[in-house]
Write a structure and sequence with these properties.
This protein has 242 residues and is mainly alpha-helical. Helix content is 80%, strand content 5%. The longest helix has 83 residues. The structure holds zinc ion. Zinc ion binds next to loops.
Length: 242
């Protein structure tokens, strides 16, 4: 086989292997960011629950103040009642007392309701905080795992870069420029095998003349349809990748 063609096949395999790392890197990072997003969501829920408690406490304080006012009013009313002269006056004071007592009941009920709400929210916060702690623990473990995975990928990638460097340094500049030009649009399918007389880049059948050239492998042959560089792979390899 033509030496340049052999080198091109090798180079395209290395390039493909280097690019194959990208989805692996992305997948590793995606795992981590999914967990981090979950953490943020739980932390936000906790903040919201705390905010609800704060609001409930404020409402409670308002009701406390109201109760104080009503109690004072009832005290004052009692004195007025003792001094009341007419039936009409007494009736009016009684009505006021009834209203004040009703409001007092309502304020007390409201405080009980708010206390209940605060207790419930506190329980929810506790559960969420436990969940968050667990997520953080998972995140730490995963981070270490992902970092190790990325370091391993980086190592493998580096080895491939070195291999590529060694290969490229002995290749013809003209051939490399030709390869790069095809690679710009064909990406990892710049150099493709021919199977069943079809280009494995565009999957179109090639004519007999081109096919014969590819089989001979004495020159660099390109697909008449798409322009990719073609080669015949050894039988064993064809079987293995099919
Ligand atoms: Zn083609």
């Amino acid at each position: 086989m033509n030496k340049h063609l052999e080198e091109l096949i090798e180079l395209s395999k290395i390039d493909r292997a280097i690019d194959a790392f990208e989805p692996k890197i992305e997948a590793a990072r995606a795992k981590l960011s999914a967990l981090e997003a979950k953490e943020t969501a739980v932390a936000e829920e906790i903040e919201n629950l705390k905010e609800e408690i704060k609001e409930a406490e404020l409402k409670k304080a308002k009701n406390d103040l109201h109760i104080q006012e009503l109690t004072e009013k009832l005290e004052a009313n009692k004195k007025k009642m003792a001094d009341a002269k007419t039936e009409k006056e007494i009736k009016a004071l009684q009505l006021e007392e009834d209203i004040a007592k009703e409001q007092l009941d309502f304020a007390n009920e409201e405080i009980a309701r708010l206390d209940n709400l605060i207790e419930t929210r506190k329980g929810e916060i506790e559960a969420k905080e436990a969940e968050l702690a667990e997520l953080k623990e998972q995140s730490e473990a995963l981070k270490a795992e992902v970092e190790a995975e990325l370091a391993e990928i980086e190592k493998e990638k580096q080895a491939l870069f070195e291999k590529k460097q060694a290969l490229v340094s002995k290749m013809s500049q003209k051939i490399l420029a030709f390869y790069d030009k095809i690679r710009r649009w064909a990406r990892n399918t710049a150099v493709v095998p021919v199977r069943k007389q079809a280009c494995m880049g565009c999957f179109m059948k090639i004519n007999d003349k081109t096919y014969a050239e590819v089989i001979k492998g004495e020159e660099i042959t390109t697909c008449p349809h798409c322009g990719r560089i073609l080669y015949m792979e050894p039988q064993s390899e064809e079987a293995a990748t099919e």
